[in-house]
């Protein structure tokens, strides 16, 4: 199947296919031209033979008389043709009545103008004939049958078929060899784009031994990828440094607030300190979520670091954990997990994806509501609930950063949970969507649709 997909999608395979088709069409065209040339040459030779034969008969009549011409016609008819062009004659009076020859009926050619045309002789064969006027009451018709070219044409067709097959095979072999070499050289570029590791980038930057356009493209691609990788590394280093510099003072501030609470302040001060700690922890969580989103988006399509993950076991384990807390919060959790569902991914990221969707569901579903976790092969992960759902005006941008669903429950958040879910899904070649539902919200995670 992969080979068929390569043949169908590869530009080089298409070029080879067009080259083979062109070679076959040219060969067929040359065969038609050769056939037409042979038939035209045969007719021209036949016309010349008839004209020469007729001119000889006219000379005989001019130097002798009608009896002499009649005798020569009988002599000609008595001789078997050696070249395969059977000759036929008709000497007739002014009304077309036969005087001599093997033809019995005048074909209707005008002798006065030496008219020539193809006629059917008595045996039914096709012949080329020309008539001429010998005297006021005497006219002559000379006809030669067309040669049987079927054997020659079959031989020519066999030659062209053999030559065409050999030429097509040569074009196919040469084109496929060239296309395979070009495809191999371009595959190095594609492989480097799919997984831009240092070794692949070094090989691209060095280029090949040649100096054609592909080598130039290879070198430029390697240099560009190396620059992008350096920029991405510098960006990650900067963001990590900024995050560290922001997280550290926030953690120190939180520790000071803990010490302030330990000093047993009055109730109002303690409440304000607790609110400040809540805001600090919210800022830290928002900062970590933004970093996780950026990291997942930066590694989208990168297969490095992915390993087989038993998604069935992972979701079952998380479902059991959430089932206990669901009872405490007066919620009902229904698990519908198909066994044996696996995916190539990062287990920690996939765990974060499932927990974010479950947290989002339990946060917006009122007590007494139901949350359903479903897993099917594909993989297809569905988290649905019977809560208030997503307001129509918020559905389009629900997966954007800092977007909120507008729930009436009064719950608050940074609006980064679903954005992180989308980034993790895209990292694993999945897509997350908000499916239509009669009640509540229904989030579906399924394989990406490739155009």
UniProtKB/TrEMBL annotation:
<keyword id="KW-0812">Transmembrane</keyword>
<feature type="transmembrane region" description="Helical">
    <location>
        <begin position="12"/>
        <end position="33"/>
    </location>
</feature>
<dbReference type="InterPro" id="IPR036890">
    <property type="entry name" value="HATPase_C_sf"/>
</dbReference>
<keyword id="KW-0808">Transferase</keyword>
<feature type="domain" description="Histidine kinase">
    <location>
        <begin position="241"/>
        <end position="451"/>
    </location>
</feature>
<protein>
    <recommendedName>
        <fullName>histidine kinase</fullName>
        <ecNumber>2.7.13.3</ecNumber>
    </recommendedName>
</protein>
<keyword id="KW-0597">Phosphoprotein</keyword>
<dbReference type="Pfam" id="PF02518">
    <property type="entry name" value="HATPase_c"/>
</dbReference>
<dbReference type="InterPro" id="IPR050428">
    <property type="entry name" value="TCS_sensor_his_kinase"/>
</dbReference>
<feature type="transmembrane region" description="Helical">
    <location>
        <begin position="156"/>
        <end position="179"/>
    </location>
</feature>
<dbReference type="InterPro" id="IPR005467">
    <property type="entry name" value="His_kinase_dom"/>
</dbReference>
<dbReference type="InterPro" id="IPR036097">
    <property type="entry name" value="HisK_dim/P_sf"/>
</dbReference>
<keyword id="KW-0472">Membrane</keyword>
<keyword id="KW-1133">Transmembrane helix</keyword>
<dbReference type="InterPro" id="IPR004358">
    <property type="entry name" value="Sig_transdc_His_kin-like_C"/>
</dbReference>
<dbReference type="InterPro" id="IPR003594">
    <property type="entry name" value="HATPase_dom"/>
</dbReference>
<keyword id="KW-0418">Kinase</keyword>
<dbReference type="GO" id="GO:0000155">
    <property type="term" value="F:phosphorelay sensor kinase activity"/>
</dbReference>
<dbReference type="GO" id="GO:0005886">
    <property type="term" value="C:plasma membrane"/>
</dbReference>
């Amino acid at each position: 199947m992969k080979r068929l997909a390569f043949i169908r999608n590869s530009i080089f395979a298409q070029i080879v296919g067009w080259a083979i088709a062109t070679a076959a069409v040219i060969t067929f065209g040359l065969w038609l031209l050769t056939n037409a040339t042979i038939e035209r040459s045969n007719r021209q030779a036949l016309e010349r033979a008839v004209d020469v034969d007729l001119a000889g008969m006219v000379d005989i009549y001019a130097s002798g008389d009608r009896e002499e011409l009649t005798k020569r016609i009988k002599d000609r008819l008595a001789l078997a043709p050696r070249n395969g062009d059977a000759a036929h004659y008709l000497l007739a009076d002014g009304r077309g009545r036969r005087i001599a020859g093997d033809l019995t009926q005048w074909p209707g050619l005008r002798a006065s103008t030496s008219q020539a045309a193809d006629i059917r002789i008595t045996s039914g064969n096709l012949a080329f004939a020309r008539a001429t006027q010998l005297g006021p009451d005497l006219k002559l018709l000379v006809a030669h049958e067309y040669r049987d070219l079927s054997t020659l044409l079959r031989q020519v067709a066999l030659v062209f078929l053999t030559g065409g097959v050999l030429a097509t095979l040569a074009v196919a072999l040469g084109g496929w060899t060239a296309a395979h070499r070009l495809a191999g050289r371009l595959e190095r570029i594609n492989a480097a784009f799919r997984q831009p590791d240092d070794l692949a980038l070094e090989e691209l930057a060095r280029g090949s031994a040649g100096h054609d356009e592909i080598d130039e493209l290879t070198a430029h691609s390697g240099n560009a990828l190396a620059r992008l990788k350096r920029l991405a590394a510098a960006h990650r280093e900067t963001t990590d440094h900024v995050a560290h510099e922001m997280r550290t003072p926030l953690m120190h501030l939180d520790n000071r607030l803990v010490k302030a609470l330990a000093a047993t302040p009055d109730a109002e001060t303690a409440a304000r300190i607790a609110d400040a700690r809540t805001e600090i922890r919210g800022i830290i969580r928002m900062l970590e979520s933004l970093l996780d989103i950026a990291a997942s988006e930066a590694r989208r399509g990168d297969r490095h670091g992915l390993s087989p993950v038993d998604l069935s076991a992972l979701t079952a384990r998380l479902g059991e954990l959430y089932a206990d807390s669901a009872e405490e919060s007066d919620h009902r959790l229904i698990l519908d997990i198909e066994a044996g569902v696996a995916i190539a991914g990062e287990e920690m990221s996939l765990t974060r994806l499932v927990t974010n969707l479950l947290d989002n569901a339990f946060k917006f579903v009122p007590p007494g509501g139901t949350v359903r976790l479903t897993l099917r092969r594909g993989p297809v992960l569905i988290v649905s609930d019977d809560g208030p759902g997503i307001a129509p005006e918020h559905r389009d941008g629900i997966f954007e950063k800092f977007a909120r669903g507008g729930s009436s429950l009064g719950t608050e958040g940074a609006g980064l949970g679903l954005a992180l879910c989308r980034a993790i899904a895209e990292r694993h070649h999945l897509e997350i969507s908000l499916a239509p539902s009669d009640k509540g919200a229904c989030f579906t995670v399924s394989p990406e649709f490739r155009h």
